[in-house]
Design goal:
The chain is of the alpha/beta class. 36% of the residues lie in helices and 13% in strands. It contains eleven helices and nine strands.
Length: 280
Amino acid sequence: FNFVVMLGLFIARHKPGKIILREANTPSSTLRSTSFGWIYRFLYQWLYKYADCIICNSSQVKNELVALNVNSESIKIISNPVDVVSIRQQSQEKIELPSFENPKLPLLVSIGRLTKQKGFDRLVSWFDPVTMPSNLLIIGDGPEKDTLEALCKKKGLKGRVSFLGYQKNPFPFIAKARALLIASHWEGLPSIGLEALALGVKVIATSTSGGLTDLHGQVPANILIIAENEQAFIEEMKKISQKPDQTSSSKHLCCLPERFHLDQVVSEYRSAFGLARAPK
């Protein structure tokens, strides 16, 4: 989309007062999505140099742009905004969980579009019914739903894995879970992980889940787990499944650093746009 906008400006021979682009996903995922990677590399190098500011949501996205010879001085990292107050309020909504064969087992939740990027296929494959005494709730719709349901049936996960479909308010389900699972093959910065941290819920994510790695050292080590490989992810799920719930009341304390909170992010965007700070 950024390429189309920049090319459109060239065709129209129009130079705005300021050009600001936002790179929300890792450039490497963009390059992998096409067989014309060399063209995309050229467009990054050529078109992005005309931007006054390029906003990234994580250091990983920035580093990949710099590796493509995009000027680092024009890149600014601004995190995805999280409306902590609203999310915590919405998490109090009363809900009913789907029926599981054994509803007393620990609940794990994963949320997102049912597409290749989100890695639900490997998450289901990692969810062993023998060594993983827990229930898995997958929230979201997408083109891979039928394939994923067939995989669950093949692995004998009936009654242990439930597909709930899209939910306008997923936060009460996150609040009831022992952990939010993110098995993505690539991300820029998955907002659902930030929202779980705002609810004080443990997040287990793959090392390919983008900017969550930026939070190392900023949140408790037992709240955000970045699994370096498949086996590490499986082991973390096992730990939750095989131990009693020890989170107590601290589970619902916000663990999200201030720089992700809505007001702070809005202030940073206003600065990037060259606007005065909004009155309180």
